[in-house]
Structures are given as C-alpha cells and as structure tokens.
Request: fold
Amino acid sequence: MAQAQVPDPKASPSDTSDPEPAAQSSSGWLRTTLSKQVVVPSLLIIGGLLVLCGVYPKIADQAFSVAQAWVTLRFGWFYTLAVTSFLLFLLLLAASRFGDIRLGPDNAEPEFSFLSWTAMLFAAGMGIGLMYFGVGEPMQHYLKPPTVQGGTPLAAREAMLMTFFHWGFHAWAVYGVMGLVLAYFGFRYNLPLTMRSGLYPVLRHRIEGPAGHAVDAFALVGTIAGIATTLGYGVLQLSAGLHQVAGWETESAGFRIGLVAVVITLAGISAASGLDKGVRRLSELNLMLAILLLLFILVEGPTSFLFDALTDNIGNYLSNIVGLSFRTYAYVPPQESGWYGGWTILYWAWWISWSPFVGMFIARISRGRTIRQFVLGVLLVPTAFNLLWMTVFGNTAIWIDTHQAMGALAQTAGNVDALLFRFFEFFPLAKGLAALAIVLIAVFFVTSADSGAFVIDTIASRGAANSPVWQRLFWALVLGITAAVLMVAGGLKALQAMTLVAALPVAIIMMALCYGLWLGLLADRAHYSQELAPATTFWSGQHWRRRLTQIVHQSTETDVRRFLAGPVQAAMREVSKELERRGIASSVQHNEADGAVWLSIPFEGVRDFLYGARPVRRALPAFLVREAAEPENRRAHVFEPITFFEDGREGYDIQYLRDEEIIADILRHYERHLSLSADQRTHLLSKAPGHHSGGG
Reply:
C-alpha cells in the first residue's frame, strides 16, 4: 500500500505505529534501526551470562543447575497452567463469534491459497527438534516411563503418549497464541509486529515507554536462549552423524565450536548476499527429503504395525489429554527423579522461547484469514505431521529393539546424539540414510540460524522495515557465540537451564498478551457492529431510467475515473465547504495516478475521519468451464468505484449514487464516526493507527 499517496494523518498521542527514531546514519553499514532501550539491557543479560560461563564454568554449571531446579520446583505448576490456558483460549476464540474476525481489514484477502498456507504451516513444524527427538524421546520414555514399569508394552504405550503430549496441540497452542497476537494487532490494529503491540489494550501509549521496552527485551533474551538451545541440539547430533559416517573425531569442544562457526558463516552469507530465495528453495527441498525419509522408514519398517500404532496413539492421546494437561505429579511423583522438570516443563519452556520466532513466521503468512481459520490451521496441520513423524520413528525404534535388536538399540538410548544413526543401521542403505540425515540437520541448522537472526533483529528494531544487513549478521554472531559458550561451559544442560529460566518472564508476558487480545477483540466487535446512523437513505426510486442504464452498462476504468473526479469529488467538496463554514477543518484530495479521491477530517486523540473511493477492477462471472479456466487477467472485467475508510472496513460500490446521495452517504459515515469516537467501548480501536487505504 502506497502510504505516500494517502493524506498524512495528524499525529495523536495514541499513534504508536512509529517507534522513536533510532540513531541512524545516512548511508551503508553505519545505519541502524536498533532500539537501544531494547538491545542494551538484552545484551547486558546475555553478555553477563556468557562471561560467567566462559570465566567461571564450574560456578556457571552450579548456578544453572540451581536455577533449573528452583524454577521447576517453584513454577512447574505455572508452566503447566499457562500452556494449557493457551490451548483453551485458542479453542474458545475459534468457537466464539470472534472466530469470524479477519486478521486485517474486513476486505483483506488471504495472500496464499489454503493449500499453500497449510503447506507452509506444515514446513514450520519441521526442524532440528524432530530429527533429534524422533527416535530419542520415545526410546527414553520406553526405558524410563514416568508411571509404569520400563521396557514393557505398557511402557511403549506410555512412551508414545508422552511424546504426543509434548509435540502435540500444546506446543502449537504456544506458537498459535503468539502468532495470533502478532497478526491481529499487526494487521487489524495496524501496529508493529512486536510483542509490545499485544499489550496496547492494557498499556495504551505506554507501550512506547519502559514497560514496552522491557517486554521486547525479555522476548529478545528468551528467543536467543531458545534458538541457541536448538542450535546446540543440532551441533550434538551433527557431530554424532559425522563420526558415524566419516569416522571423524567429533567429541572435542574445538570441533563443535568450529561446526557452530561454519553454520553461522553460512547463515551470514545467506543474509548478506541476498540468497533468501535460494535458501527458501533449499528449505523446500529439505522438507521434501524429510518426507521421503519418513516414507522410507514407514515402508521398510513394520508398516502394518505402524498404522495400527498411529490409530492407537491418537486415541490414547485424545482420551488422556485433559488429565495430562493439568498433571503436576503432586500426589505420586514420577518414577524417575527430575522427569517432570527435565521433560514436560523443559518442553513448555522451549516452546515459549521459540514462540516469537515461529509466531512471527505464521503471523506474516496469515494476513487475511479469519481467526477461526488461523486457529484450526495452526493447531491441526503441524500437529498432525508431528504425531505422524513421532509414530513412524518412535514406534519403529521400539519395535526394532524388541523384535530385531533384542535390546541392542536400547543400549544406545542414553546417547541421544548418536541414537538416530544407530537406528539407521537396522535398515537397508544405512550409510545413505545417515548421510541424508546429516544433510537435513545441516540445512535445518543453517536456515534456523538465518531465520532466527532475522526475527531477533525484528524484535530488536521494533519491527522497523529495511534494517541494514549488518544487524542480521550481528545477531547471527550473537546466536553462534551463545550456543558455543554455553556448550563449552555445561553442554546441553546449560542450554536447557538457560531456556527454562529465560522462558519464565516470556510466559508471564504471554498471559498478559491473551488478556490484551481479549480486550482488543471486545473493542473490535463493538466498533464494527455499530450500525450506520440513519442520517438519510439511499436511492428513493427517482430517476430510475438513469439507474437502469447504469446497471446494464459495463463501466470501464475511464468511466469510473471520470465519475470519481466529477460527481464524487464535487460532492466531497460541497461537504468540505460546508464543514469549513462551520469551523471544522477538512480536505479533499485526488490521486491522479490511481484515480482515488477522499475527504478527510482530522480528529484529536482518535483516528481521523476518512471517506474515499477508488477504481477497483473486478472480473465478470464465468459462465463456462472454459472461461473459468482462463487466467483472471484474461477474463472479461469491469471497473467499479469502491469506497474505503480509515478503519479498514470493507467498501462497496457507489456508482449508482447521485450527488445528493453521495453527500448523504458521507454524512452517514461521519455521524457514525462521531458516535464511535464518543463510545468508550471502542476507544481501543478508535485510537489505534488508521489503515490509510487511500490511493493504495
């Protein structure tokens, strides 16, 4: 949308769309969009932790252990309640009247087809985590389940139940809440795609103050912790795979740090050289290879048993989901000490840390969809794939261990890094499968670092557009250093502990975001349900022959432009002239480039009033199959003068209105605007930045 073509609205205290100007230089690498209020405290926290780990690794290891135990003991219940609340909240929204609200103006259309959109959600569910835990988690739960005897059929069933629980609806509920908040306030309220925007209904203009900075700073630290943990998993598994395939010595800290350096360098090259399209195509290829790997294991493994197991796993998961959602093991602790904190709570913290990353991705691809479509798509599509993946890899591993390996695979279960590659040894083309897995992990590794750096930069610059490349390179370097230092200091344990602790304030903020979203939706419903004031009525039946002529005539672009520049603009000028006579400022503008005309009236403290119309091309209905198959730009079409408004409501055709009727229509909307401006229920939306649809 071309903002420059639109009347510049008068700044108001409520306009929060533009952050304070960052210190910028006019050129090149010196330019920055970083917000020092967000970046400085975040880097101080991260830097302090890294210095502690690098200089005093033993003290750091002890501190991480104490912090993890304290958070698990004191706040395990909170993580459990929070994540379950996110799932219930999303289901409530989808089932309610709010589910019909679009993520954007009422006339917004989805940017992607349903098939493409679900495919991207499907891709979002893939990553290093599935490669690392696909075999490792079910096997470890099978050997050490929380409530039954290990190594038994009941243990296998519980192993898959707990794996489904950790990778199912709850994980994507966390991502869904963050994505929905970002998409709703970003596209509906026209606020920046940052976490602080979700607190606009609570904090109002204070989101630009210390509270807003603190929210984004916590999000920044939590995201760095979550992505660094994932990179740590990738390094450990990649090292094990290279040792298995190439025979290299990969256990040393130097090798693993070098591996991190290589990955971060590749991610930096991608960011600096504009290879985004190439990386995207590589990611798509990676997804196809992952599906081929899945199908290979499905076909070469115990196929019939896997389909039986999938059905049983889904039924067991759905029948136990309520009890699992609230289970804190208050009465009977798990058989394995630390199981609850080391698995369930750690997973909830990991998903929360990753939520700004994945949430921003699914928000960016979801503009134009309804809340109901968003919730159902986000909860069902990736979850379905995750459960299928875990069944194929997890159940196959347990079956092989009990029917072929006779416990040999279980002996490797303690070394999760190498377990996947040990698993491949029981299949044909084991070396090829291992090499394919290494490629998959490596590409997931690079794309996670590159995309992670982009999201972190977005948070750090408060959603600023066109950030310089060096900032993404800087954050990629921060990710690499964080992962490397924590791995040297305490390995995976340190990474997990940092994620667990860093996610706690982010979880608290997400609870506040749910409250803010609810308030925003209430204001939204009150605003858009307001009926037009009965200042006048449309056509009364006069001049019906002229109206009939217009109906049967297919308007061209020239016709519509002439109508807008003539009668419509003249009617707007009549209203503007009368407003000026009564002491009310107003302006009428005409954009000759696209033919749009609009009348604007500035308001203090709320959105300006704007009534405009512009030519819109519309394809005529196709009556033949052959016509429907034609590209839309080759089908017969007409042009219509369609209205637009500052609040993003869906416009309509006004080509049949006469001068007086156009004036009456303007007054209807002006009276509505006055009514809404005085209604306290709608102030949240009325004071948000306008959509400025004119001319775009």
